Amino acid sequence: MQDAGYPEHAATQLKSQANWIRLSAMTMTNHAQLGHTGGDLSSADILATLYMGGILRVDPQQPRWPERDRFILSKGHCSGSFYSALSLRGFFPAKQLRTFMDPLSMLNGHPDRNKLPGVEANTGPLGHGLPIGVGAALGARMRREAWRVFVLTGDGELQEGSNWEAAMTAQHYGLENLVVIVDRNRIQQGDFTETTLRMEPLAERWRAFGFAVVEADGHDCAVLHERLSRIPFEKGKPSCLIANTVKGKGVPFAENQPAWHHGVPTKEHLAAAASELGVEVEW
Amino acid sequence: MEAVAKTTEEMRLHDCRDAYAEALEAIAERDTRVCVVINDSLSSAKLKNFKAKFPERFVNVGIAEQNMVGVGAGLANAGMVPYLCGAACFLTARAMEQVKVDLAYSRSNVRICAMSPGMAYGQLGPTHHSIEDVAWTRILPNMGVIVPADAVETRAAMLYSLEHDGPLFLRIARMPLPDVHEREYEFRFGKADVLRWGFDVTLMANGVMVSRAMDAARMLESAGVDARVVNMSTVKPLDREAVLDAARSTGGIVTAEEGLAAGGLGGAVAEVLAEEHPAPMRIVGVRDAFAPTGSAEFLLEYFGLTPGGIRDAAFAVLEKRR
User: Fold this and answer.
1) Residues 12-41 of B with CB under 8 A from A
2) How far is B62 from chain A (nearest CA, A)?
3) Model ipTM?
4) Which of A257, B47, B117, B285 satisfies CB 3.0 to 4.6 Å to B171 for a cystine?
């Protein structure tokens, strides 16, 4: 999308990095024989844009730099794509990814901030990331610091009421340094979200809770980059980006299949995915 | 209740909530990282002064405890030292997963000031009582648990809390209590505080039960029993050495707490004794029950959380040793 103003070659590179994140996550899941392939694949472009597109002001050399932007993966089960993105950004060597879920590995099934540099919050149970993000955004304000907080949630995750408690706080305090990104892949563990418990009208719900809402194709890195480069979407309001995604994106056999929520790819799947995605995972 | 000779000063009652609020203002004055999160609990948490003095470091998240605890973890991530101040019953039970994951597992530098714990809310009933909180919090790895005995210790523990590394759970009593400590008392985290030396039996208590244990010791003295009284204000980490020393040198232990007899201080002490030095023991607490209707004072009497109840438990321990 040239009109988004993001150079085409840069967007192409982000796409390729997102595809590396995809294949890396699938390889990790194959290694551990556990993981969440569907959500790893739907969130890959968002993570690539945040970490590799220069949206997040972080420094892998100083992971606890006080004025860094905070990224909180509220959908902590998508650790495969998250760890791959952190590694790609330089927080730790890619060869660590080989230890995913191994005994005593830093790469727990769900992220642990005390084990792995770049992780801000211990997530896994759903509905925890946004309250923590709201607290961090309030903290930045108290400290009169300019950093921002990005929280990536699932869509089914928004069935947890704690998200809406946090949303009310974000609205009340006008946290314009807070961005919620919803990975709107429309599938949760057991079924499609709209069959399980209707989420729509999701954008209207966020608006009603006081957020400035923008929707985007969650697989178009140029569009994502353009949207995330103009935070806050509206002065004085917290921002919500609904990223419309496809669960299992990029690998046709997994796309839009609830069974691939935590499907484990075989070696044959990995070979097919590598050829589909046009990348190699060398770690 | 039987009469116990006391001085006027011993009988004077103090509100631990005033001590906590003053200490909180003092540390906020000293350290700009100190901030407060409440859940609509402005008056019950006695924070009107704090809000007036430090409005920019004061957050009210409304009636939303899960969010409140997560917000605390986020503030800590931002480099602040947040104090979450609200009724103990809601802050623990309602937000237990956040307490476990966002605070304990994450090792967040967050302090929970659990207001009006135990059966302080009396007639409001078991929904508002918090007799489970110590059991729930003390089993969490990384979580420190402090149950101060009086206003002096409440203040001292609050002053200590600023330098503590990791999450802390502090119980702030609502019931006015007599001071068992001198004003100069220095709180030592994780250390038993021996209020009275004795060698026949040990009374180990915390919170509102400490002054009652002192009264029980006076009763026992008049019956010829030389009781040790230990204020075990830190439940986690428990001072195992003090427990073992009490078991070795006095032969038996009575614990007393304003909470369930299962899982709290009594449970913690029993775990140490069972593994290291089995000795006769009685646990004075609420035995597997939700309270009937009644004032806080009535309920303490009803469940035997009294000097007489502690004394009788001490006699039972002495009986077992024979």
Assistant:
1) 35, 37
2) 8
3) 0.96
4) B117
